Amino acid sequence: MTRTRMNVAEPRVAIVGAGPAGIYAADILLGLSPTATVDLFEKLPAPYGLVRYGVAPDHPRIRKITDALHEVLTNPRIRLRCNVEVGADIGIAELRAAYDGVIVATGADLDVPLDIPGIDLPGSFGAADFVAWYDGHPDAPRSWPLTAESVAVLGAGNVALDVTRILAKHAAALAHTDTPDIVLEQLAASPVRDVHLFARRGPADVRFSALELRELADQHDVDVIVDPDELVLDAHAERMIEQFSQRRIIVRTLTEWASRTPSTKTASRRIHLHLRQRPVRLLGTAAVTAIEMERTASDELGRMVGTGEMLRYDVAAVYRAIGYRSTPVPGMPFDAERGVVPHVEGRVTDADGARIPRLYATGWIKRGPVGLIGSTKSDAAQTVRHVLDDLGDLAEGPAQRAADPLDALAGAVDFAGWLRIDDAERRAGAERGRERTKLVARDEMLGHALPIGEVVR
């Protein structure tokens, strides 16, 4: 193999994952090292990760983050290569041989499992799969079984709110977004009438953001129903709302909804928000027909415990939105119990806790699926500082670099290729009177991105 002498004065770093975590890491690295270059690898044909494929289409203010990410990618010291799967098209060992540092930022894309009877029945779904479908992920199925009139959603965070809102929302309200046409058509045909959102926690302990919670009621022809009996505050809840303003706002919002008179609730679709209930089992034989819940209460330390009181709800579909976990990256150690890469402040370690030279992690695969954009930036900064510190020690870098691996990657989509996909989506959107319409099929995306005759794997 042809090799060139390493020059740590001009560090070359590979970043795996072109979502917010990976792009922020590239931006911070290039800002701190004026001679560094970054090769940014992404397994999908398009960049932006969770912002493109994990944010609900009716949240354009969050999707505007892509404008900032785009500006980073215009830096001439970044070479973007999409449609390249690390672990399949190129390995971690090959990257470590070719670069002075490798930062893995592949995020979290799998649902946390829920171990209760009946969870594997047809009609039981993970939120990650549903979000990927309505966001037009190229590896998601093109159709979704929207056949239930009554649906349950399990979770007390913003993903649960997104899933609930999309299930209850009339498709016409998404017509101005970048939602793929095939998704809009299926949402328009959905017979759903009731969406039951269940939170194990009480009103002062849910993890919803106050702003996103209010969006549940800001929909055409959708009522939100809250049982006032479930809003009774115990001593723990009183302490929480006294200490945290966001929790006060959430309790105030829920109380306002609970106080509305039944005669005003005439919408064709309803969201029932249930608090202090945990799932016990899904019922049914050939498919889900009901869910059994147990009421919970908080102990003196604020921990939720079962009360033994059981409730049954007739539903034909259940969506669990109880958390995400990361997919292992071939060639890297992985803590299967925690769902993250083992590390010390972003420096990846092996099974014995020893550092693996030139291998780093950032984002959700490093810290788990917690925190928003601010956390992602500070997390990336910590990892990048260690990369640059380690490059100051010649022992941290390979004695020789392997040849540039990009030359051997057939079918990779560079930044110019991504711009062609972006242009095609904007033109498709203009035809429909919106900013863009997202392309869904991988082959269609690659057809726009790659020159005629380019080999596609």
Sequence-ordered SSE layout with sheet pairings:
Elements: E1 3-5, E2 12-16, H1 20-32, E3 37-41, H2 49-53, H3 60-63, H4 65-73, E4 78-81, H5 92-98, E5 101-104, E6 110-111, E7 124-126, H6 127-134, E8 150-154, H7 158-168, H8 181-188, E9 194-198, H9 210-215, E10 222-226, H10 235-243, H11 245-258, E11 269-274, E12 277-283, E13 290-298, E14 304-313, E15 317-320, E16 324-325, E17 343-344, E18 347-349, E19 355-361, H12 364-367, H13 373-391, E20 400-402, H14 415-431, H15 442-449
Parallel strand pairs: 2-3, 2-5, 3-4, 5-19, 7-15, 8-9, 8-15, 9-11, 10-11
Antiparallel strand pairs: 1-20, 6-16, 12-13, 13-14, 17-18, 18-19
Helix pairs in contact: 1-13, 10-11, 14-15
Structural write-up:
By secondary structure, this protein is α/β, with parallel strands linked by helices. It has 2 domains: 3-109 and 326-409, Rossmann fold, CATH 3.40.50.720; 110-324, 3-Layer(bba) Sandwich (FAD/NAD(P)-binding domain). Helices cover 31% and strands 21% of the residues. The protein contains 15 helices and 20 strands. The strands form 5 sheets. A 7-stranded mixed sheet has the order 4-3-2-5-19-18-17, with helices on both faces. It has a 6-stranded parallel sheet with strand order 7-15-8-9-11-10. It has a 3-stranded antiparallel sheet with strand order 12-13-14, with no helix packed on it. The longest helix is centred in the last third of the chain and has 19 residues, at 373-391.
